[in-house]
Amino acid sequence: MPIVNQTIAAMQEYASKAISAVAKADPSIVNLSIGEPDFGPPPRLLDAIANEDLGLSAFLSSAKHYETTRGAKALRSAVASWYARRHDLDVDPEREILITHGGVEAVAVALLGTTVPGDAVGVTDPSYMLYKRAITTLGRVVLTMPRPPQENEFCALLEQRTPDRMRALVVNSPENPSGYVLTDADWDAVATLAEASDAWVIHDEVYDALDFGRPHRPAWCTPRLRDRTIMINSFSKKFGVPGLRIGWMVAPEQVIDLAGKAHDYLILGVNAQYERIARRLLEDPEADRWLASNRDMIRTRASRGLETLHAAGFEWSRRPQGGMFLFPSVRRLHAQLPVDWRNRYRSAGEAVAAFLLKERRVAVVPGSVYGESVADHVRLVLCASDAAFDEGLARLTAGPT
Fold first, then answer.
1. Would you say residue 400 has pLDDT above 60?
2. Alpha-carbon distance 123 to 204, whole Å?
3. Can you spell out the DSSP letters for 181-205?
């Protein structure tokens, strides 16, 4: 047999999906491992989505034609209006927006448009696991940048290393898994870092509407970053439609041109029928109110979870400011596990996650997949159904191991 791609062959399965698959196959397990929101899409829109966007006429007009490279003009205009309404940002729908096959494709074509094989791309520890996989898959080199918990965490990056090797820096705010939201001082530090190495910044802001502790600011709100930043967003999390696979990129025109070429070569175009649904979600007059109600629900769950789990031995190096996850340290719980459980796994997070899955029937994700510095953490979601979240908390706090 001819040789296959050994880089991809060496990659492990996507952790949260692998764990979630186990949970979905066993109804006795409470699945708090994967960010598939129980909420959404807005109930008031369901009839229109079913009867108009998913109707025969919409299907035929979508299925019989390729979508244009940059996506439907109407949806790009709706994205531009999103930034104007929520952040007072002027974004040109003709030149500065590309509609993508979810936020994941947007990250990939952003890297393809701004870097070449062998370039170093910076990611912090912790960070969302997908970034390192995408960087490596595309033949770029991961530059891991430690980020200890503190106020203004990204300011500390300026003191750690000379960034001359870095061609791009990926920033996730609000962040998966920690819930960290960058401050104004953080964004200034990111700008300084990017300027020093003449690097691009890729801001993944898919949790932008879930900023329950500190206000979210798109990178373009920092003027120094506007000409060197690509912003990535999607409908999956905020509108609760991860299977829709519609996202977008906002970037300077030259980057949109290059990313559009990569998008065309790899994807051809997104599903126009699903673009109609995405546009309806953005243009809904009640969208901001509905999004705010979900943000408030997540805030309430986060507060309840922090208090309840802390009393049971979970600890926090960072209190979440946004996103849809809790990310506690489990060092104390690890010390209470039977010796065979502690010795069986490489890290405290892996041991505790395995124990919780086997003995408590709760699926969470070990922190090691997000970085070595958080290998003693686990991640659990705040977006499950009310029944699953309540039962999950009850099992996680059930008493001694």
1. no
2. 12
3. ---HHHHHHHHHHHHHHT-EEEEE-
